[in-house]
Give the backbone structure.
Amino acid sequence: MLKLAEQCLERARTTADKLGKPDVNSQSPEIPNSSPAVKTCSASISASMMSQISVSHQYGHRRACSDEVQKLSTFPTPEVFQMLRAAEIQGYKKELTPLEEASIQNQKLQAAYEVRLARLNPRQAAQKTSLTLSLQRQMMENLVIAKAREETLQRKAEERRLRLQEESNRRFSKNKQMTPAEEEQKALYTAVLEYEQDYEWPKVYTEKIKSSPTDQVLVSSYVCQILSTSEHPIAKLIIHLQCQIYNRLYPVISKDTTQETLTSNLFRHSLPLDTDPLSALNTSQIRSSKSLHCISGPPRPSIQHSRSIGEGLESWENPRCTQQSKQEMENSFEDLESLLSPTSLTMPAALQRLTVAQHLHVVVKEIHNARDRLLSSTMLSLNLPSSPQVKEACLECLEDSLFPPLWPALLALYRQVLFSREETLLQVMDLYSTSAPSVVGVPKKLYPEDIKEPYKAAVEDLQHLPHHRTPQRKLECIVKTLRVICECTEEYCPNPGTAAIGADDLLPILAFVVLKSHMCHLLSECSALEEFIHEGYLIGEEGYCLTSLQSALAYLETLPVPPSPPHV
Amino acid sequence: MAAGGGGGAGGSSSSKTYSFKVVLLGEGCVGKTSLVLRYCENKFNDKHITTLQASFLTKKLNIGGKRVNLAIWDTAGQERFHALGPIYYRDSNGAILVYDITDEDSFQKVKNWVKELRKMLGNEICLCIVGNKVDLEKERHVSVQEAEAYAESVGAKHYHTSAKQNKGIEELFLDLCKRMIETAQVDERAKGNGPSQSGGARRGVQIVDDEPQAQSAGGCCSG
């Protein structure tokens, strides 16, 4: 009997520990006055703890904390990233299972027992024994009852799961062999069904959508609601995919920030968030070596006719190495395959051998896949009507959720790939920053002398671009910039209503606006946008504006450095 | 990849809507801007002028029951921007190459562009060579014979227009659209009736969302 009681106590203690832990974790990032290093350390520790608890992803503790901290200057580690993502849409308290409830109760009992025991006179041994026994009895009872309750609940849950499983089996033909993708879709479908059993609001939406299947706004608000509910299976899937992609991005972008001092110089110029005092000290030194490098570079070949970034940019960057890198690409094909499996996180040798451009290629592909997967799974598991309008509304919501946390890291990778081009552009921007619009070919009639800063409104609009966080918003920003340019020309034109400028005028003005914006990372932003722009927008106004911006950038890169003396 | 895939038939419902991209090429003063402005403002008035003025224009047509959405991309004709052409004309279904009949030099430029387009896009793209400013017939420097012979030799059609007098423009675009539809249909047949996926998906998909273009301010074309 005593032994049993001991076991009970033991059990109560372990459960208490288990329950106590998450509380400790949630407090740790808020330790007052702790240095950032300590904070991130504790954060990454708690993150790894959490990931061990969570079922979906199990990442170990990769490096010692001291290593970790040094690399944290710009981007969070995948572990922290995951935790941040999870925390962002958290705010939901988990219900306790009967067993957990019982152990909490038992803890209280035990505490009470210990208090009483302390109050007892050492001589009242008989009373002590009876107290101990009654405690043991009560704890036992609690546990037995809890266990029975839990079993019933589990049985019910299991029954329900089977029922839902059958329901999804009916939807996904049971006989034929299922691909992993289909398996995944089915699992998600079942999870969504299960979720919908527990909550009322999805049913309300589903009914409404059924009665008006063409209502895009309704679909949007439904999907947005889902994505802001952390417990919904689709919201969980998005976080899972984001973490997977971020894991791929992190090793490359973090390597860069520690090794390349040159990069930080470039970054300092264009990104407001980076304020590294060390790189500022070296600026002049770097400048001179940079300009040498640029002038001796080979003439730029004409623009490649290619949409696939991986090969396109490479051959643009350096025509000589294309052949070689292609071969490398083929050689490392198997490595790539192994990379694509989501489990490998420890930086394999294969990963290190890849060039940055190849990395980008892999990541881009993965993002495309993730987006397609998300869309089709969402459409299917929510039973949305499959009209193109609904699909588009759904995709827009998903992208609004998928891209923002990833974009900074993705951009950093693009910037590494386009490093030398951005460097050239930055130099041009520095040298031509005070030039008149005529330098880039804007005709005199389109910039009246009496206007102090022509096209300032357009420059300001363009400068908002980095602050938008999804491809769609960024594109809208570019379109707005070009429209404002057109409005400006109308304003500047001596006889209003006759301007109607064509590309002959628009492109030079845009080049001027880009020059004034002084943002060389527009090159990377545009490359990323080109990759993720919706196909439907490609030949529309959005596509035209993006193409124009890319042209303006490409033109600026070709300007002579140093500027040739003005003639004309 | 853009050289493959035919014109865009984004047929979601029973009736098809073709979406075509047409690039406009030509030297600075040949009048290509007035040409498109004339075309787009003529029939349906300023409704089709976008807020990007003459740089990017859209037009909806109905040709023999087939709906066509035209997106007309103007390009900068100055020499300094010549290298940028390819990013503009990739994925185009048609190209309109404009020269000034009074300017021999502008015709030479057209020849350069034709070469480049064929190199980049192959034979999929429908080419139109347009001699503009026929109202200045007296000052003609490019002979009709030479121009037409050249066009034929490169598989292009030749047209004479006057943006000033609004001559020949409607015919030019109508003809171009018909040819692009034909090319798209040949392409569809070649692909078989299978689900039209990936392959040509990049090209000419239906623009579902064209409201921003429809509700334009369009104050620019009143003059």
Observations:
- Confidence is low (pLDDT under 50) at residues 19-72, 257-265, 267-346 of chain A.
- The CA atoms of residues 230 and 380 of chain A lie 20 Å apart.
